[in-house]
Write a structure and sequence with these properties.
Two copies of one chain form a homodimer.
Chain A lengths: L2 H18 L19 H12 L15 E2 L3 E2 L4 E2 L4 E2 L3 H15 L4 H16 L2 H12 L3 H27 L5 E7 L4 E12 L2 E5 L10 H9 L4 E4 L6 H16 L7 E3 L9 H6 L3 E7 L2 H8 L5 E5 L5 E4 L5 H13 L11 E5 L3 E3 L2 E3 L1 H16 L5 H5 L5 H10 L6 E3 L18 E6 L3 H4 L7 E7 L2 H15 L4 E4 L3 H13 L4 E3 L32 H5 L2 E9 L3
Helix pairs in contact in A: 1-4, 1-6, 2-5, 4-6, 4-8, 5-6, 5-8, 6-7, 11-12, 16-17
Chain lengths: 555, 555
């Protein structure tokens, strides 16, 4: 069986799932990681440990290159000492250019087959990737497994499927026969989906595979060679993925440099030099708004960004306030607020909120929320694992600063002991009350475990502020709680105009932070939090150009 | 029958045609204009004449506005004296904003039905539009009829169909049911296609409907109100179309300001003010590269441009040289080279070209080409009607300048008498030989009836130059003649990389200038000649944002 036949069914199902948007997972995470094998976890951990302190030797790029080691575990607060090859930007562009002229001529079926095969290799290493993710991003084990493993692989498959469908959208050849009355004009036409050129994918420190693979696979399926420039702090997870892609490419007789890993250091960053190179036509970026906006402004490039945003929760009225605060507290605690979808601004009317048991005042709500956060944090079987660690030391400073904000401090941050890693860098959430008039405080992203309870005049003001923040500063998620259908539609309509998805009335084990592949578009692309969306049609069609060729039909 | 049921079949067939890309026309031009009725032409001419010298009174915009008259007939060299209402940009934006909140809530079916109904009104006025086009653009009658009438209506329908398909691409609602082992997480999900905001469509002086309606209808189908700012020299053709759209909108109970006409004068242009208004989110533009590039650089907008380019013809080898020069001469003469698809740079090897009758030298080819041009121009039953007139006086200056270029003048321009319009502004083509080393001469668009015969070392140089021009200065078309399959593939591959469509070996009554709706993508969007393509998926998906909403399923 050739590789395309092997994976055709997976591809067809993925395309159908994109259209259907019901639950679908080629790489499920439920009911537990054990579905990938009873011993897979232990073996993955061993393999991860074997990589530490050595040169990463699996890449099929030039082996003689100098090595750099840039990662540190937020759990151990020690360097991982894994050496990655370091290349000049000239070398990367040169190899990418050669690879372009090979890869662009590989047809869509073969590209899809190679890329899905690479996901099968990734699947075999989900646990190794999970531990690599823990010890670079500081995520808890379960999130590290799910987000960097199955969920990332599903997002990659989604991008492959979306790109493949677009490549097949129009016929390769067509006989065009125009009746002119006494005669016909007859042409043979052909259309080629021409890839744009070298694609640069710039990763982030918190989700090194989940945020990288959509752009990576979207560019590859549409025929563009990719240079992946990971965040220096989180290289290993994506290095493992890239090693797999290179292996399949080489096995199938292609240049492994079709997908290159380009590691740099914080001292000598190379992202700008690569981005500005005229051969680089596509740029995917996850990270801060300043650099993202700079990239978006580069002429002659198609740039796909996920930047920062100010996410909101609008609290109007609820059935059961205890279930609501449980859900929201978990959203804030999860990975210590270091998800781009984590809520930050909680808009609560000064007169409190309606519940089925009567009115709950602003202060009562705040107390219950704080209690729920404490319940998670202080539970030794839950807190450390939900919180994970703080990836970047700068986040600790932001937490300290948050406790000096101009408002009532409802909860201060503490370190949270991790039973497995005594040296883990941890911090529980800070909760601060802010008056709605103090917009300068809450109109920026305070990345980390920082929740602002914003006291508004009423729900109309809450909605207006959430919309304004999204339009002016971006937003990737919005949680909303209301039992009133009219208010619900108002929130839906106003936040839609601010291109912000809304999760209504979530309680139980589903959180506003979570976006599911094949169903939820991640980032809409319509507000300043980013111009790209995983995976809408725009995300793939901008990566190639339809070019038509025609000639008189042979008669 | 409601309006959607009335037009559903047309819509379905148009969507199928876009995918099929075989010949398709909802509004055919063949075998002759008479298919629209024996008396339609005469009646249309009368109706056109009745509009001259009066205020255009069909718009449903504010009737009390001041009037401006800006058009002049290149056939009569006299003003048309048709008065159009003139609005302040504030008024236009205000009305557009009100219209936005109405139109965005109209569903895709109703929008499609209204827009197709407006094309049916346009169809009834094809001849009136044809005469309006003749006397603003200076096109010959047949082109004015075809391009501004049936072809434009088909391009509009194509945009409607492409947009409609994208709006229906994902379900409005879906039950999402994720198995978690011992329980399921169940969500009701909803997706909304949220339009971007006010759309500004800036027209050109040469194809006032054909180049305007794709953006106009693409924005309208996706829920965006449109302000059409035509070129002051060519208002009437699109004013008639807009009057029809407004009539259908009003008949269906909607605000006619969903589609506004915004006429300005060359003295007091309003395009920049409108384009920079923050409520304007979408801009479509056809015109010069300088203004197009300025528009493309505006932050926070999605901009769709068709700018200028340097089109080429690569002559390598032919079967029958006489048929080839006939075809090329017609391409140059057609509307006096004032089509964005007209060839300008003819690359011919210094050693001549192979034909089935032996080698034809560079000079022999040039002689034959000049003879063919003269054959068209000097035929009184053909020349004046193929050439039409010169729309803009500046083009006459360019023709004069072309005769002073540094190269052998093979043919000078002359006036060509038009038997129906003694005062018509006409000019036959100039043909100049340029050495391939003099790149500064042929690396810019010389808009008008100017053909440069560029003497190259060989076909490889011809291809390299055509590609370089397209990559650096843009190209919308490329004609190529070769009998060698390897050279053919080389041209196809190299020009594809420069995102330029290629027409091979055209002879007879089909020309490189012609792009057919539902089959040929017009402009690829991949080189500096423009960033948009009629009508690829990117052209419509960038006009709205997918926003998801979700909540726990009621159990």
């Amino acid at each position: 069986m050739n590789l395309f036949d092997k994976h055709k069914d997976v591809l067809d199902k993925a395309i159908a799932a994109i259209h259907d948007r019901a639950f679908y997972a080629q790489y499920p995470e439920h009911p537990s990681p054990k579905i990938y094998g009873e011993t897979a976890d232990a073996e993955g951990r061993k393999r991860f440990q074997a990589l530490l302190g050595k040169d990463f030797s699996e890449l099929l790029q030039d082996d003689s290159a100098e090595r750099i080691a840039t990662e540190e575990s937020p759990y151990l607060q020690e360097p991982l000492n894994i050496g990655y090859p370091s290349f000049s930007t000239e070398t990367l562009i040169e190899k990418g250019t050669v690879a372009f002229h090979q890869w662009r001529k590989v047809n869509a079926d073969e590209r899809a087959a190679i890329l899905i095969e690479s996901l099968e290799l990734m699947r075999e290493r989900f646990f190794e990737i999970a531990y690599a993710t823990m010890h670079t991003t500081g995520q808890g084990y379960m999130m590290a497994f799910q987000a960097s493993g199955p969920h990332a692989a599903d997002r990659a498959l989604e991008a492959i499927a979306a790109g493949y469908e677009e490549l097949k959208r129009f016929p390769e050849n067509k006989f065009w026969d125009k009746p002119m009355g006494k005669f016909n004009i007859q042409l043979e036409k052909e259309w080629r989906a021409v890839p744009k050129g070298i694609s640069l994918v710039i990763g982030c420190s918190t989700f090194p595979t989940w945020n990288t693979v959509p752009g990576l696979y979207a560019s590859l399926i549409t025929g563009n060679p990719v240079i992946v420039k990971p965040h220096p702090g989180a290289v290993l997870p994506i290095a493992i993925v890239i090693a797999g892609i290179q292996k399949v490419l080489a096995d199938q007789g292609h240049d492994p440099n079709i997908c290159q890993l380009a590691v740099d250091s914080l001292d000598k960053p190379i992202a700008k030099v690569l981005a500005e190179n005229p051969e680089v036509k596509l740029i995917d970026f996850t990270g801060n708004s300043e650099f993202g906006s700079y990239l978006e402004s580069l002429p002659g490039k198609n740039v796909f960004t996920e930047k920062t945003g100010v996410n909101s929760a609008i609290i109007d009225s609820v059935e059961d306030v205890d279930k609501v605060v449980q859900n929201l507290a978990f959203s804030v605690a999860l990975y210590s607020g270091q998800m781009c979808t984590a809520p930050q601004n909680f808009y609560i009317p000064e007169n409190g909120i309606k519940t089925s048991d009567g009115n709950v005042s602003f202060d009562e709500f705040a107390e219950k929320f704080v209690e729920a956060v404490n319940g998670i944090v202080s539970n030794p079987k839950m807190g450390p694992f939900v919180l994970g660690t703080i990836q970047n030391k700068n986040t600790c400073q932001r937490i300290t600063d948050a406790e000096k904000l101009d408002g009532k401090i409802w909860l201060t941050s503490t370190e949270v002991e991790n039973p497995m890693f005594k040296t883990a860098r941890t911090a529980s959430p800070v909760v601060v009350e802010i008056d709605s008039s103090k917009k300068e405080i809450f109109s920026k992203e305070l990345f980390g475990p920082i929740a602002l309870l914003i006291k508004t005049k009423d729900t109309d003001e809450s909605i207006a502020l959430a919309k304004e923040m999204a339009l002016n500063h971006g937003a990737i998620s919005c949680g909303a709680y209301t039992t009133d259908p009219q208010i619900k539609e108002k929130i839906a309509d106003e936040m839609s105009l601010a291109a912000t998805p809304v999760s209504f009335n979530l309680t139980g084990p589903i959180y506003v932070n979570q976006n599911a592949g094949f169903s939820d578009f991640h980032v809409t692309g319509g507000n300043p939090s980013g111009n790209a969306s995983f995976t809408n049609p725009e995300y793939v069609v901008k990566r190639f150009t339809w070019v038509g060729l025609r000639e008189p039909a042979k008669v």
